[in-house]
Amino acid sequence: MIFRLPAKSPGRSNKSGKKFILILLSLILTPLAFYLLSFFGTSKSSENIIISELFLRKNTNSPSLVLRVLNNSDHPKLIFGSLVVEDKAAGIKKQISLGSLGEIMPLTQKDFSVDWNEPWQGSGIGQLKAVLYDQDGVISEKSMPVAVIPENLESVGAISLFASLLLGAGLVISRFV
Predict the structure, then answer these.
(1) What confidence tens digit (pLDDT) does each residue in 5-41 have?
(2) pTM here?
(3) Is residue 117 part of a domain?
(4) Which residues, 6 or more positions from 124, have their beta carbon under 8 angstroms from its beta carbon?
(5) How many domains is the chain partitioned into structurally?
(6) Is the residue at 70 inside a domain?
């Protein structure tokens, strides 16, 4: 006995449904990929001192950047820090020294809050990078890509997520138009 699949009907094909699904998937996956790249793909560390997180927290007075540092080594470590703000569109780069962040005990995690209220004239596509170092040099760094660097850093994460959504939607729409 031979089984045959039914012949295709000469009716409407399902191309528009496939395009809709592709557009929907790209709108969902683009911001997710941007977030994962910014969270996992841009950190460098050595000597077991790691910036495990770099995020923004809004305080009552002003927004602050929080560095969550983890010491995986067996000995305490005295660390220093700096913040590098770069506006790639305008070609502006500024380094702000955070000074001594103190000593981190072995196998502990510590949060450092950086209140940054200096005016910033740049706007465009840029990067915010936290760098930790000791007497011997750089031991850890982590970057946060941003679409616009506003004066008060409150909305950096939201703006970069919105910009990645727009970019993803534009790429998908231009592909099918």
Answers:
(1) 555 555 555 667 788 888 888 888 877 777 666 655 5
(2) 0.51
(3) yes
(4) 87, 88, 89, 90, 148, 149
(5) 1
(6) yes
